[in-house]
Amino acid sequence: MKILVTGHEGFIGRNLASYLQHKGHEVEGWEWQENKYPDAQQYDRVIHCGAISSTTEVDVEKVMKQNYEFTMKLVEICDMMGTSMQFASSASVYGPGTDGFNETSKCLPQSPYAWSKYLIDRWVAEYQNDFKINIQGFRYFNVYGNYEDHKGDQASPITKFTKQAKERGVITLFENSENYLRDFISVQDVCLVHEKMLEKDVNGIFNLGTGTATSFKDIALTIAKKYDARIEYIPMPEKLRGQYQEYTCADMTKTLEQVEHTFIRPQEWIHESK
To answer: Is 227 part of the annotated catalytic residue set?
Structure first.
């Protein structure tokens, strides 16, 4: 296939473009430009990963322009040109997850970023039967893996803890981190599911996690053991208290009805990584 990957210079987009090229696809990249859009007619598929991905971005106008308005226009272009499309959503749309993490669960977005993703998901879900193309949105849970060093504070705990262990021999962990659990999914698994879903004649929103939650403490202990580092516990900053998400875990039923896949556990990935 000839595939366009938007956001190909970012963490997930870079991994996805590289993986698809390795699998024999012809891949081109696209980065956001003011008032410019790709010619979707040139491609067999468009995979839209491009976005302002910072969950702490407070410029609502900027987020809505680049994440929401651009995506809406790109969907319209793809539909008009007959080019099926996949796009990146986020588990952040669930907010605290008080209603669970099923695609039909109540969403409670807590940031401009999460709202921009939720509005697209809502629109696609409402009008999915009206599209002439296949359009698939993936709610990424906590993605980790290669090429995310540049993300700084937005990088996954696995990358941040590994960097601390290698450079300082000390991993900084919030107190009570055994009580904070996330559904960590490797970027390689994300790429594999994207590829498998390219062949599926189906529309809609799909969770993309592993269906298993792991505590921050377990992650830190695994990394500390590998690099002979110690763990230093610190109080959670006041600004995070009351809004720090305690738990995420994807209900993968809908996704796994479409594709068969066995996900790597984060502990296994840590052991195997260099």
So the answer is: no
Question: How many helices and strands (H and E) does the chain possess?
Answer: 9, 12
Active site residue 140: no
List 65, 151, 226, 254, catalytic entry:
151
How confident is the model over 20-72, as pLDDT tens digits?
999 999 999 999 998 899 999 999 999 999 998 877 778 899 999 999 999 99
Indicate which residue of 19, 68, 113, 144 is catalytic.
Answer: 113
Same domain flag for 138 and 148: no
Q: How many separate domains does the chain show?
A: 2
Domain hosting residue 168, numbered range: 144-180+213-246+264-272
Contacts of 92 (CB under 8 A, 6+ apart): 55, 109, 110, 111, 113, 114, 117
Residues of the chain above pLDDT 90, percent:
84
pTM as predicted: 0.93
Q: What pLDDT is attached to residue 259? A: 97
**Same domain? 82 vs 196:** yes
